[in-house]
Write a structure and sequence with these properties.
- Strands 3-2-1-4-5-6-7 form a seven-stranded parallel beta sheet, with helices on both faces.
- The mean pLDDT is 94.
- It is of the alpha/beta class.
- Helix 2 links the parallel strand 2 and strand 3.
- It has ten helices and seven strands.
- The chain is globular.
- The chain has a single domain, classed as Rossmann fold (3-Layer(aba) Sandwich).
Length: 257
Amino acid sequence: MEIQGRVVVVTGAGRGIGAAMCRQFASAGAERVVVSDRDAESAWSVAAELGAAGLGVACDVGVEAEVQQLVASALETCGRIDIFCSNAGITVKGGVETTNSDWQRMWDVNVMSRIYAARAVIPGMLQQKSGYFVQTASAAGLLTEIGSASYSVTKHADLALSEWLSVCYGRQGIRVSCVCPLGVETDMLDDGDPIHRYLHLHAITAESAAAAILKGIEAEEFLILPHPEVLDFYRLKGENYDRWLRGMQRLRQKLTW
């Protein structure tokens, strides 16, 4: 799908990958880029950078009513939504001891937000017989994230939902992509965490990630990998699951013991 002349909505767009995606879309000729973020001032700031193409909207994607309002605002202002990018995401360190409230917040933002978006946008896309969903997951959804159980679990679910949407709506004109990067130089990488320091070894800029996402959308690729090596890791996992698990156990021991 070409970006030229499209109406695009991006969540979690006040900074990081989301903001870089908005800039890429505007540069590629999008008719309108709806910049959404829980931090209203950040959303408005990025939208202002885009000039006439930008529209800033405050939205906490973990609340369904706010996602519905975001979609309604975009439709009222722009008339349609061609591409919806569920990019907003959060992380929490820790394993199964992570509190129930943190697990719930992770589930709401990283998974339910995508479901809320699909509920709100798919009917209109089906009516116009075209549309595109882009969900920013993580390499953790294909592999794992040894420093955060809740991040790994919710990103696996994010990938599963992307697959389901593609299977169910792909023959009705709706395209789906799932973005699975490794480390990206954003606020989510914590230099004080040894696991995140390891991710820094392969980290790319948010701008590089956004450029890969734009290219993947134009090619209508389901799996968009800003780090191409992730595909090699995923193949190794599928070829010998037990060997892959033993390798990840050794890596965790090296980084945390």
